[in-house]
């Protein structure tokens, strides 16, 4: 059961580029990454694509297929019509290196800006017994494969390059939430989230959750709970008044 | 380094514009209906069966039908075109407008920010909820408190209506408060207040249990938002039709 599929692949680098048409053989059971590999093997040996595991676990093969941010290795060809032209483009939000490969260092910069886990100074190793219910929330966030599809899709930076400075993106706001929800973390994550990582820029339109290949409920379980914590701290007049009246810090 | 040069606003080939359009039309129709009923100022109370539409509850001004004012008439008759619900509507509207789900819905559908995922928004600048007026969305929890009180009043009304027997209207009022209750309980602020704000779930087993139950409802928050909104309108319509004598209530007991 194979057929000749029609593809349009973006080729180029930071000096320019365009969509190029190809006709490539498609076999039963294949994913888009298989087709890209066949294209490389048969017609475009210099086509650049980043991949590693082909199992949806390394987060390397992020791209956009028919305009939707997805993993190349987890998008089955069977979801498309045989007559359909399938467009494959690099992630839009990050600077292009070549063809389907982008420079995702924005994400590493943002990752470094999140202060690391801060357990109590006087806690000896082995002294604390972690309960399952206390780590459950962070465990969901730990499923992240760092594909950066959420970062790529979030309109705050996708449509506004200038916001990259102030906004860390859903992946790293989720990291802040993970630490904030950790029973042993002592750092002040709430002010950081709003002031240093730009949580206020998120308008909870949920595109990060929509594209996450790990189906992490980024918005519902990380971003909104952080917004609620920020509201506790900064925008709750009753809490504010209590602090004024009773001189709590 | 520059981004890949792709001119198209989106390369999506599916009907990405359909969900925002449906949301927009849905919210528009409901707003028109609600505005019409608010300013109609009539047919909100069925004296015979003690049905009070949730849109007029509590009825707190002196122009209210006295029997419909279960909690007294605190305010004088309102001038001009103003009707009793204008006192409670700011709270009800505020609750829905600052709701995390509705925010998503109208940011996408009415403001196209973004219209759909991976479809460029038409605005050249974007500051999200960082400044006035959108920073006020952070007051959602206060609307949640207010809406909870109004919900209790709606429950009281629904129970009170059973005093005259049981009709289809009673069932409708009951389903209405059930849906409103589920929507209100599934609120993200409610989830946070009940237990979400804790770091140590293991030290607070009761609040952890509440949080897990609310989280289950919270998963369906969008569904409950629509179901409760539509059903409030249907409830109101039913009361209006019975109150105006257009239809008669289907009675089961007396
Ligand atoms: S929910 Fe917030 S972080 Fe996620 S894509 Fe939307 S704006 Fe970005
Ligand atoms: S949160 Fe999901 S979409 Fe974002 S980087 Fe992790 S796995 Fe990818
Ligand atoms: S190649 Fe590893 S996620 Fe696709
Ligand atoms: S989040 Fe929707 S009602 Fe609170």
From TrEMBL, chain A:
Family the entry assigns:
Belongs to the succinate dehydrogenase/fumarate reductase iron-sulfur protein family.
**KW Phosphoprotein (keyword) present:** no
Give a yes or no for keyword Ribonucleoprotein in this entry. no
Instruction: List, separated by semicolons, the cofactors it needs.
Output: [4Fe-4S] cluster; [2Fe-2S] cluster; [3Fe-4S] cluster
| UniProt-listed SUPFAM superfamilies | 2Fe-2S ferredoxin-like, alpha-helical ferredoxin
Listed NCBIfam families:
dhsB, PRK12386.1
User: Which GO BP terms apply?
Assistant: respiratory electron transport chain; tricarboxylic acid cycle
- Extract the Pfam families matched here: Fer2_3, Fer4_8
Cellular-component GO terms for this entry: plasma membrane
* Name of the featured protein: Succinate dehydrogenase subunit B
The Swiss-Prot or TrEMBL record annotates one GO molecular function as: oxidoreductase activity
Pathway listed for it is: Carbohydrate metabolism; tricarboxylic acid cycle
User: InterPro entries of this UniProt entry?
Assistant: 2Fe-2S_ferredoxin-like_sf, 2Fe-2S_ferredoxin-type, 2Fe2S_fd_BS, 4Fe4S_Fe-S-bd, Beta-grasp_dom_sf, Helical_ferredxn, SDH/FRD_Iron-Sulfur, Succ_DH/fum_Rdtase_Fe-S
Query: What keywords are assigned to this protein?
Result: 2Fe-2S, 4Fe-4S, Iron, Iron-sulfur, Metal-binding, Oxidoreductase
Q: Where is the 2Fe-2S ferredoxin-type domain?
A: 5-92
TrEMBL record, chain B:
- Keywords from the named record: Membrane, Transmembrane, Transmembrane helix
Keyword set includes Transmembrane: yes
Q: Which residues cross the membrane?
A: 16-36, 81-102, 142-162, 168-187, 223-247
The protein's name in its UniProt record: Succinate dehydrogenase
Q: Which organism is it from?
A: Lentzea atacamensis
């Amino acid at each position: 059961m194979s057929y000749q599929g029609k593809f349009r692949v973006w080729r180029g680098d930071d000096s320019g580029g365009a969509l190029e048409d190809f006709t490539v053989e498609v076999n039963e059971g294949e994913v888009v990454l298989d087709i890209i590999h066949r294209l490389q093997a048969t017609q475009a040996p210099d086509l650049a694509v980043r991949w590693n595991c082909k199992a949806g676990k390394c987060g390397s093969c992020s791209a956009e297929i028919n305009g939707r941010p997805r993993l190349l290795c987890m998008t089955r060809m069977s979801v498309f019509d045989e007559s359909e032209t399938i467009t494959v483009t690099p992630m839009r939000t990050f600077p292009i290196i070549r063809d389907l490969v982008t420079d995702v260092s924005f994400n590493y910069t943002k990752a470094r800006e999140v202060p690391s886990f801060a357990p109590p100074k006087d806690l000896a190793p082995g002294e604390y017994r972690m309960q399952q219910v206390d780590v459950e929330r962070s465990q969901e966030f730990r499923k992240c494969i760092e594909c950066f599809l959420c970062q790529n899709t979030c309109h705050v930076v996708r449509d506004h390059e200038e916001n990259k400075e102030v906004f860390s993106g859903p992946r790293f706001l989720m990291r802040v939430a993970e630490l904030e929800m950790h029973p042993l973390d002592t750092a002040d994550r709430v002010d950081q989230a709003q002031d240093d990582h730009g949580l206020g820029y998120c308008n909870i339109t949920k595109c990060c959750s929509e594209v996450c290949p790990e189906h992490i409920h980024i918005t519902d379980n990380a971003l909104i709970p952080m917004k609620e914590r920020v509201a506790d701290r900064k925008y709750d007049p009753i809490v504010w008044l209590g602090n004024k009246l009773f001189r709590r810090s | 380094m520059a981004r890949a040069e792709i001119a198209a606003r989106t390369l999506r080939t599916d009907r990405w514009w359909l969900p925002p359009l449906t949301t927009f039309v849905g919210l528009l129709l409901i707003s028109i209906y609600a505005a019409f009923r608010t300013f109609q100022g009539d047919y909100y109370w069925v004296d015979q069966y003690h049905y009070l539409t949730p849109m007029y509850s509590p009825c707190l001004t002196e122009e209210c039908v006295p029997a419909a004012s279960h909690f007294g008439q605190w305010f004088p008759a309102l001038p001009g075109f103003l009707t009793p619900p204008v006192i409670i509507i700011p709270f009800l509207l505020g609750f829905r407008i600052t709701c995390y789900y509705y925010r998503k819905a109208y940011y996408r559908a009415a403001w196209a920010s973004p219209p759909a995922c991976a479809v460029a928004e038409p605005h050249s600048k974007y500051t999200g909820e960082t400044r006035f007026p959108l920073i006020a969305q952070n007051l959602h929890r206060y609307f949640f408190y207010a809406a909870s009180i109004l919900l209790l009043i709606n429950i009281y009304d629904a129970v009170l209506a059973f005093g005259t027997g049981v009709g289809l209207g009673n069932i409708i009022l009951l389903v209405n408060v059930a849906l409103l209750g589920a929507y209100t309980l599934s609120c993200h602020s409610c989830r946070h207040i009940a237990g979400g704000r804790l770091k140590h779930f293991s030290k607070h087993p009761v609040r952890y249990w509440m949080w897990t139950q609310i989280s289950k409802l919270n998963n369906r928050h969008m569904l409950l938002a629509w179901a409760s909104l539509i059903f409030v309108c249907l409830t109101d319509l039913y009361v209006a039709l019975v109150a105006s004598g257009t239809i008669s209530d289907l009675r089961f007991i007396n």
